Amino acid sequence: MVGEKKTDDTTYNQMFKFPPERKQNNIQDHEIGYVIDTLVEELTGSYYQNLMFLITQTSFAAPMRKKSLSLIHIPIRDVSAEYYSAILAVLEEAYRFIDYGQFLLCSGYNHESLFTEAGDCIRTLQKECNRARQAEFQLEELLEQSETLLISELRGSHGLETLLRYTRRCCILSSYRLEIMERLPRRISRLCRGARNILTRINRLEELVFKIQTQLWDPEWRARHMDQQEVLQPLVDILEWESRQCDGVKYYIGYLYDYTPSKEPPIRPDYRGPWDPNNIIWNHFWWWL
Fold first, then answer.
1. 186: which residues sit within 8 A by CB, 6+ positions away?
2. What are the angstrom distances between the C-alpha of 48 and each of 45, 87, 190, 224?
3. CA distance 214 to 5
4. Tens-binned pLDDT, residue by residue, of the chain (289 aa)
5. How far apart are the C-alpha atoms of 262 and 27, rounded to whole Å?
6. Distance (Å, whole) CA 207 – CA 76
7. To the nearest 10°, the Cα dihedral for 283, 266, 37, 207?
8. What is the DSSP letter of 200?
9. What is the pTM of this model?
């Protein structure tokens, strides 16, 4: 077999198996489970929230500039959706590979066919990891370019900016707009950091899958563990649980498009921030539509 390499049980026990005294359904005991769990948490939590804050708050801050702002928001939303899609594909291939792996440790199966299928999973996983890296690079580049454009849209002309600053203390429309504009660099920075954190976990997941492959491709290791499904079953249990979690990520891709054929990115009032306690900004935005 290509890539055959002798491995011992120590590596497996340290990296892939639950400690015997802990429950197997505790995902924190398993590195792959932990990596996937934190990855999904970042995708559906911090990154998604910061993206919605960016789109909603800049739209609410300058409703009269909605069309111009949408032209900036749409590419960010689309590349984010591509990033989500690539990550989902990586998770699905990791699950499929582990699923084939458990049958490689069972006699009575066509191992040649299983090796072919598992090898295909590895190649597809590598391809999707590269796709995720490319999307992440695109995303960071786009966010950095968009920061200047968004600030320019919110600042407006020199005369408008002067008026906004002059009326900041007495007009919530002015104070909200300036607040969002001044916080934009921090928001963009959080999005970039979130995208990098996600990619770090994808890279680690790829490494762990390759380490499992090294052991499965080792004939001596397989011979010692043949018909001992408990060796890989904990992994399969975790990945099955995580695959259900990842189903939720698919919905978030839908949320980015608001489940409509419209090209406009979604604007969600619950992400407008704490600077509109009396819904004045909210009402002003809808008045402009």
1. none
2. 6, 14, 11, 45
3. 6
4. 434 444 444 444 444 443 333 344 444 447 888 888 889 889 989 999 999 999 999 999 999 998 999 999 999 999 999 999 999 999 999 989 988 888 888 877 778 889 999 999 999 999 999 999 999 999 999 999 999 999 999 999 999 999 999 999 999 999 999 999 999 999 999 999 999 999 999 999 999 999 989 988 988 888 888 887 677 677 777 777 777 777 878 888 888 887 665 678 888 889 999 999 889 998 998 888 7
5. 39
6. 29
7. -140
8. H
9. 0.85
- Token readout for 219 is 């004939």
Residues in the chain: 289
- Identity of the amino acid at 43: L
